[in-house]
Hints:
CATH architecture of the largest domain: 3-Layer(aba) Sandwich
Distance between the termini: 6 Å
Oligomer: single chain
Strand content: 5-15%
Shape: globular
Order of helices and strands: HEHHHEHEHEHEHHHEHEHEHH
Low-confidence stretches: 1-20, 376-381
Mean pLDDT: 91
Number of strands: 8
Helix content: 40-55%
Largest sheet: 4 strands, parallel
Radius of gyration: 21 Å
Amino acid sequence: xxxxxxxxxxxxxxxxxxxxxxxxxILLASFGGPEGQDDxxxxxxxxxxxxxxxxxxxxxxxxxxxxxxxxxxxQQQNRDLKAALEKELEHRDIExxxxxxxxxxxxxxxxxxxxxxxxxxxxVLVLVTSAxxxxxxxxxxxxxxxxxxxxTGLENELELVKVRPYFCDKAFAKPFDDALxxxxxxxxxxxxxxxxxxxxxxxxxVTHSIPTAVAEAQGPQxxxxxxxxxxxxxxxxxxxxxxxxSLPEATGLEHSLVFQSRSGSPETPWLEPxxxxxxxxxxxxxxxxxxxxxxxxxxxxxxxxxxxxxxxKETAEELDMVFYRAPTPGTHRAxxxxxxxxxxxYITDEKGRPLSAGEQIVPGDxxxxxxxxxxxxWVSE
Length: 381
């Protein structure tokens, strides 16, 4: 598994090592999810493999899936994204086959790697459905690929080139721009109908929590020093600040970054505050309504559907607060088009020139995370 050089905005495209970056297929890599009641426990066993968690405890999480027929929306979201990317690639005359594989459910990485190799592919560009740099969004995928390449005997036969993190790109931020504007208008209209035209909603940006110790150990020291927090939080706070500053509708509104979906031992500190605790605190402070922005995710999945659409919404409603959950990028036109722009940094034309480049719009120097080589504390040779 290798990280190819990448071209952040402002770096000439001809600075790329085109021979190394050129690829002959694309792999859409994701987390995976169950598609029926019988799949739920086997899926959760895959997710928690090696942690010694008994099925009795897994059933507590399984209840979230079972309440929705045992089906995670992430599988169909990935099918939809794959189809949208294929259409965009075809529109640009980029004749590269696009495959799809998951870490924890069918289609599994090992099967897809063998399928790609059998089809004659030798250098594959990997697009991961996570926008941020971090352990679960980057390192674990690299570890999984390295393990599966060894297990299938393809470590010397198939080269995988992972696309850089894209949290700071227009591709990721633009869909949330649109969603934030819609959310603010929606909450204001409902407050107006309730006879509170002067009331101001609050914007809550939310992402998946991780153990505090993990967060503090990750990433370049430069970013920790510059932003005064861990690298995981810094990325999300930068996206939130950009979104609030880019929309006239958000002028004068308060916002915060909160977390969801913590798990494990209660004694282990995780990043806080939890979204439900934050909503309760906001209610005490007189906040009349919230616009919830799930900026940690590129598509809906069970943790979005359960933790936000179920638990957080119920918390807000019990406190008589107006609640709006913004959509994730999913197959938003700007997201799909922007992802192909970013992949174009790694795909060359007949003269060895990159086809396109992403556009950074979240301010800051993120070159340690997205620049040539990219940040990755664990990379196999």
